[in-house]
Amino acid sequence: MAIDENDFSALKSQVGGHPGVQNSSDGSLIAKPCLHPELEFYQEIASNPSLAHFKRFVPKFYGTLKLHGKIETPAGGEVDPGHLNIVPSIVLENISHTFLKPAILDVKLGTVLAEETASDEKKARMDRTARETTSHETGVRLTGFQVYNHDKQDYDVIDKKYGKSIKPDDLPDGMAKFLPVATIDDDGAVHGQGLPTPLLVRVIDGLISRMRKIERAFHGLEFRMVGGSALIVYESDVDALEKSFISYLSEEEEEGYVSDDESDEDETPEEGEEPVEKPSKQADPKPYVIKMIDFAHTHLTPGRGRDEGVMLGIKTTISLLEGRKAQLLDAEK
Predict the structure, then answer these.
(1) Which of 72, 93, 114 is the last residue of a domain?
(2) Are residue 209 and residue 296 in the same domain, yes or no?
(3) 50-72 confidence digits (pLDDT tens)
(4) Total domain count, the chain
(5) Which residues constitute the domain of residue 33?
(6) CB–CB of 152/115 below 8 Å?
(7) Secondary structure (DSSP) of 166-188
(8) Is the domain of 117 the same as that of 153?
(9) Using one digit for the tens of pLDDT, what is the confidence trace for 188-213?
(10) DSSP structure string for 96-126
(11) Is this model's pTM higher than 0.70 or not?
(12) Does residue 227 belong to any structural domain of this protein?
């Protein structure tokens, strides 16, 4: 079934990145305004064999969406500032769609925040930002997150101001805020934020495993990524989480499993191809997921080695997750 721009509205669960992301009426897709380099990178992921191991860690790409028949480019090729919304959007799977109460964290990776082609002024400004935040030392910045509050029956949202205000020593506290411990009373009601400790530890184990796989996928890639993130999602509804653990493939099974993202049906549309087709089937609920996002400033750089700043950020994220797990286990002693 084809879709158009009228099928989309503002995404309510966006915790990081630039504004303007929209989701489809059924919630399964998002449309994100993009510049040409990001579109090119998604097409490269689909077609380049060297990125095959990386492909499973990015949202599935369905094509582009444009405002057909609504806005004409003025004569002479000049775009009026009031018409800037004609920038095409890439259409991606909404990875939080199958979650009932998704907790979401956007972790910006890397120690360098400006591209090599940026002006000297911007490089200096972004280097100063990296040094004044956690990015330069750790390769990580907590861009924003939401956690489910069972008492409020709503989300508590922490915006990017928090991530910019903390120092490296505060990062474990930030991870604890994203992975808080809920309690269950005698009647079985869940209170507070997050999950009870046993379920939370299982989720963290899964997140650590996923991040290690992402680390391995990145290990042999020669690339530079500026502004990219790891988007971490886990289920906060206790009943839904327990059911998803039962139905979800184990890590060992998943290693040999050909996902939708890797099947022959995943043919990336050519640039500008319309219309976008909706996914043909509903994905099974998962207890957690991590996907790499935001590739507007990501390029393959053959012969130049890995992006060590991004690799540092991945290692830091793994360390923070391991540290949070240790805190929880120590508290249970």
Answers:
(1) 93
(2) yes
(3) 888 899 999 999 888 864 433 33
(4) 2
(5) 2-93
(6) no
(7) --GGGHHHHHHHHSPBPEE-TTS
(8) yes
(9) 999 999 999 999 999 999 999 999 99
(10) TTT-SSEEEEEEEE-S--S-TTS-HHHHHHH
(11) yes
(12) yes
